[in-house]
């Protein structure tokens, strides 16, 4: 009995130690990151704060250039800004009235794509760009985050899920 208790105490101490060091690591990583948002997948520690990659809206700085890679699976993969890097079809949180650039400059396959911005009436408020397999400057759109803007998408593959949400606040 006494022996069992001693073992449990040791185990408890070990667990406490592990939790404490995890907390220290988490504290460091959020302290070192100026914008502190949605970068839970940056360090691969998805269980730290429960953020799944891609589902949490990522706040984008006003005026930012939002760039994607077209994947061979016909999805968008975020490249920049760093908050969306590596995320599939990330949800973008934009500031109403601000202007942004959005586009893609890399193709992970040989399939051709384009990009357009849609509002909540399913009208294109920017684009579409030409459907191409080798993206250049022509695949970058400039648009204003008006209140009805809700989605970016590749039109040929929109129904396959090559799209992401935009939240304007
Ligand atoms: Cu596409």
Provide key terms for this protein.
4-stranded mixed β-sheet; disordered N terminus; binds copper (II) ion; globular; 169 residues; alpha/beta; single chain
Write a concise synopsis of the structure shown.
Helix content is 18%, strand content 28%. It is of the alpha/beta class and 169 residues long. The strands form two sheets. It has a six-stranded mixed beta sheet, with no helix packed on it.
Task: Please describe what this structure looks like.
- With 169 residues, the protein is an alpha/beta fold.
- Helices cover 18% and strands 28% of the residues.
- The chain is built from one helix and ten strands, in the order αββββββββββ.
- The strands form two sheets. It has a six-stranded mixed sheet, with no helix packed on it. Strands 3-2-5-8 form a four-stranded mixed sheet, with no helix packed on it.
- Strand 6 (116-119) and strand 7 form a beta hairpin.
- Copper (II) ion (CU) is lined by residues 70, 74, 113, 154, 156-157, 162.
List the SSEs and their pairings:
Blueprint: H1 2-31, E1 58-59, E2 65-70, E3 76-80, E4 92-94, E5 99-107, E6 116-119, E7 124-126, E8 140-144, E9 149-153, E10 163-168
Parallel strand pairs: 1-4, 2-5, 4-10
Antiparallel strand pairs: 2-3, 5-8, 6-7, 6-9, 9-10
Bound molecules: copper (II) ion.
Copper (II) ion binds near residues 70, 74, 156 and 157.
């Amino acid at each position: 009995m006494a022996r069992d208790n001693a073992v449990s105490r040791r185990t408890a101490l070990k667990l406490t130690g592990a939790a404490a060091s995890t907390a220290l690591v988490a504290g460091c990583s959020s302290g070192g990151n100026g914008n502190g948002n949605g970068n839970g997948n940056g360090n691969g520690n998805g269980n730290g704060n429960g953020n799944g990659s891609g589902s949490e809206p990522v706040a984008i700085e006003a005026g930012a250039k939002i760039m994607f890679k077209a994947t061979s699976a016909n999805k968008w993969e975020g490249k920049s800004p760093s908050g969306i890097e590596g995320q599939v079809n990330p949800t973008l949180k934009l500031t109403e009235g601000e202007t942004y650039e959005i586009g893609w400059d890399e193709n992970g396959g040989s399939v051709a794509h384009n990009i357009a911005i849609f509002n909540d009436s399913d009208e294109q408020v920017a684009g579409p760009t030409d459907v191409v397999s080798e993206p250049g400057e022509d695949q970058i759109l400039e648009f204003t985050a008006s209140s009805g803007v809700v989605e970016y998408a590749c039109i040929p593959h929109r129904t396959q899920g090559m799209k992401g949400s935009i939240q304007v606040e």
